[in-house]
Design goal:
- The chain has four helices and five strands, in the order βααββββαα.
- It is α+β, with helices and mostly antiparallel strands.
- It has a domain of 89 residues: SH3 type barrels, CATH 2.30.30.
- It has a five-stranded antiparallel β-sheet.
- A hairpin with a 6-residue loop joins β2 and β3.
- The longest helix has 8 residues.
Length: 135
């Protein structure tokens, strides 16, 4: 199993340009067709927050990133759409929830939360089979 490289302030990675917000500066520089096809590489993580990246979307964990081609511009990308390729230089800069050795909190499955003594459709015995078992 390949372990993910933890993200932190100063970590370097890449993301598909179509997931990077705001997208207008990327479209102005690279063109709309290239934004849909290619990755924006050598992005530096500057922070992490929970943001609403789509107009009617849910809030998701997101990285704040910057790129050398866009000085003074701050971009945002969902954590799930960003690939960390080079970890940050200091261990103290790694985000707490991404430290190695920590397992993410998992929700208990709904099927495991159900009572085990319930009667399901598979436990019903047809009437004629009950008569044969009694004799």
């Amino acid at each position: 199993m390949v372990k993910a490289i933890p993200g932190g302030i100063g970590a370097i990675g890449s993301a598909f340009m179509k997931f990077v917000k705001p997208g207008q500066p990327l479209q102005d520089k690279f063109g709309e067709d290239n934004v849909k096809k290619y990755r924006l590489e050598n992005c530096v993580i500057t922070g992490k927050s929970v943001r609403r990246l789509r107009a009617r979307g849910k809030e998701v964990p997101a990285y704040s990133i910057r790129h050398d081609d866009f000085p003074g511009e701050e971009f945002h990308v969902a954590k799930s759409n960003f690939k960390v390729e080079l970890s940050c230089t200091l261990d103290s800069d790694i985000f707490e929830d991404e430290l190695p050795g920590q397992q993410p909190q998992r929700r208990e499955r709904a099927s495991a939360a159900r009572p085990q003594n319930r009667v399901g459709t598979n436990s019903v015995v047809p009437e004629n089979q009950q008569e044969h078992e009694a004799t």
